[in-house]
Design a protein that fits this description.
Blueprint: E1 2-14, H1 15-19, H2 24-30, E2 38-50, E3 53-57, H3 67-70, H4 81-86, E4 97-99, H5 105-108, E5 112-114, E6 121-123, E7 129-133, H6 134-141, H7 153-162, E8 165-168, E9 172-175, E10 178-183, E11 190-197, E12 200-204, H8 227-244, E13 247-249, E14 258-262, E15 269-274, H9 276-280
Parallel strand pairs: 3-4, 4-7, 7-8, 12-13
Antiparallel strand pairs: 1-2, 2-3, 5-6, 9-10, 10-11, 11-12, 13-14, 14-15
């Protein structure tokens, strides 16, 4: 098995929304904002290659949306999904399995693209199965008013229409050495992959834990639909992560790619931070 960090570019979101009830005077010391209160966030994905299977976890915001939509998110960064895969000698056609943690646009926008003459939306990964949890699919296709703006039909419906959609019914092994757990505080049925790599568990954190700055228990995004449930889920996850020395791989933390945790009298803290390739060496 081989693991690769896949950068797809960055976006900016409101810092207050990203840190919920935590005052700016506190969170800005850990994750600085610009003059417009925006913080820069990665849209980092993970590629797992195991034999003939090439599994990509999430795919960023994509490039099919119009300028009016994209300008709200101040996209930046030199890397794209295409360029990051090309560095490995791969293209989107090589991906066999597209695992989507959830269907918010910054995680699944790259799933669908325009055809050559822009008359039809088609799967960007034409040879891949698209894996989505049952709870998330039902939640996203009948969105609540709070999340409706994050669930874009053009990112979602073509998956089903193509016949490439695969539903994850329950937690457990999805592929050999690739397990999924489901969390519901951020959005229903968020898939959090746990990958067994040479005896270590690498966890793709998605929006269960967007960054190392979100490790303190009350530091929960305002985007979460059930923040009290997120607190419970974080607490349970921390117990597992510390006991089993999990490697946390961050999708949104632009400053830190991976970390491990340790227990302290004041709660879980970062033990060490590092790049994924440092773990693999």
């Amino acid at each position: 098995m081989k693991l690769y960090s896949i950068e797809t570019g960055n976006l900016k979101l409101d810092g207050g929304a990203m840190f919920g009830v935590v005052p700016k005077v506190m969170w800005s010391k850990k994750y600085p904002a610009d003059e417009n209160n925006l913080i820069n966030l990665a849209m980092r994905c993970l590629l797992v290659i195991d034999g003939d299977r090439k599994i990509l976890i999430d795919n960023g915001i994509g490039d099919k949306q119009d300028e009016k939509f994209l300008k709200h998110f101040h996209l930046n960064g030199e890397e794209t999904l295409k360029s990051s895969l090309a560095k490995l000698g791969l293209s989107k056609d090589d991906i066999t399995d597209m695992v989507l943690t959830h269907l918010h646009f910054d995680h699944t926008g790259g799933s669908i693209e325009w055809n050559e003459d822009k008359t039809k939306l088609i799967p960007a990964f034409k040879n891949a199965n698209y894996w989505v949890s049952k709870a998330q699919w039902e939640w996203a296709t009948k969105p609540n008013k709070r999340e409706k703006a994050s669930f874009l039909g053009e990112n979602i419906q073509p998956m089903e229409e193509s016949g490439q959609l695969k539903i994850i019914e329950e937690e457990g092994e999805l592929f050999p050495n690739f397990n999924v757990k489901l969390y519901n505080g951020h959005t229903d049925g968020q898939v959090i992959p746990h990958i067994n790599y040479n005896g270590r568990t690498v966890v793709f954190m998605a929006d269960l834990l967007p960054s190392t700055a979100h490790i303190p228990m009350p530091w929960v995004m305002a985007y979460d639909t059930r923040p009290l449930l997120t607190l419970q889920e974080k607490e349970q996850f921390y117990e597992e992560a510390i006991e089993n020395d999990y490697v946390l791989f961050f999708e949104h933390d632009i400053y830190n790619e991976c970390c491990t945790l340790e227990a302290t009298e004041r709660g879980p803290k970062v033990k060490e931070t590092f790049k994924l390739n440092e773990l693999l060496e």
